[in-house]
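lol forgot to send this yesterday, sorry. struct tokens for the thing we talked abt
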């Protein structure tokens, strides 16, 4: 955590972590926090939540799932040397969140490995919720640009821009290995297009009932209403792009690029 916490706030945060991790040994968590600091504790806590949302983690013997506390302490290997772990965990008694290791049984033949499976929709939603809870300061930053292709039926002209509303078509086949997408049948896409951009495409859409709008812009989501807003940066239609290509071919200029309106 970037802000400086008082000893009382640290103690309260450790106890809250213990509650979420279902970990009874609060003193062990406090001892670990004293050694690695709260920033790394928060990182471990977030990674544990993500691992739990993704289906959990097996013990080294593979005979059962680790508890959330067991996952948390297992992940400390990324931050600590063996000697540090011995000092903090006081090796000699079982780690918190794990039972004593039973006597080893004779090894049985392992079943043939199965092909890896993509995450289920439930796991995907869990991972997305976990990602949404990551503090902004701990996320990377990215420019997200969206392309919208379709023919709007709902159009509202305003003084400086035009609003078009569309639903979402079924998602085409995606690369093998990706998890299933959430249902988008009820999703709504709202696009804001500057007035000058709309003037260039409006006549093309009216003259050709089969023409479709092509918009590139920046999205803002409202997941509670299954709604995505797009602020258009460029705007054209399939018909306009086709006409530009034909003109370039006629002039012997090849088929490079496409016309887009950025005004």
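and heres what i got for the seq, position by position
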């Amino acid at each position: 955590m970037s802000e400086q916490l008082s000893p009382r706030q640290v103690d309260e945060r450790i106890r809250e972590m213990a509650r979420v991790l279902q970990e009874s040994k609060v003193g062990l968590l406090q001892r670990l926090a004293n050694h690695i600091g709260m920033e790394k504790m928060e990182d471990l806590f977030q990674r544990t939540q993500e691992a739990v949302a993704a289906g959990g983690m097996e013990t080294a013997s593979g005979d059962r799932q680790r508890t959330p506390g067991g996952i948390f302490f297992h992940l400390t290997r990324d931050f600590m040397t063996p000697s540090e772990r011995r000092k903090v965990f006081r090796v000699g008694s079982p780690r918190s969140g794990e039972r004593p290791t039973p006597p080893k049984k004779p090894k049985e033949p392992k079943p043939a490995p199965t092909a890896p499976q993509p995450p289920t929709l439930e796991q995907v939603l869990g991972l997305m919720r976990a990602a949404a809870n990551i503090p902004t300061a701990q996320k990377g930053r990215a420019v997200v640009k969206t392309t919208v292709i379709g023919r709007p039926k709902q159009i509202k002209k305003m003084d400086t821009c035009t609003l078009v509303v569309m639903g979402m078509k079924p998602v085409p086949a995606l690369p093998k290995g990706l998890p299933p997408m959430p249902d988008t049948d009820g999703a709504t896409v709202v696009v804001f297009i500057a007035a000058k951009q709309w003037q260039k495409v409006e006549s093309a859409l009216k003259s050709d009932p089969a023409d479709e709008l092509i918009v590139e812009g920046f999205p803002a989501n409202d997941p509670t209403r299954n709604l995505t807003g797009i602020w258009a940066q460029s705007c054209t239609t399939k018909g306009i792009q086709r006409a530009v290509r034909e003109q370039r071919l006629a002039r012997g200029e090849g088929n490079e690029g496409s016309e887009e309106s950025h005004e």
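Strands lie at 146-150, 154-157, 161-167, 188-194, 213-222, 227-237. anyway ping me if u want another try
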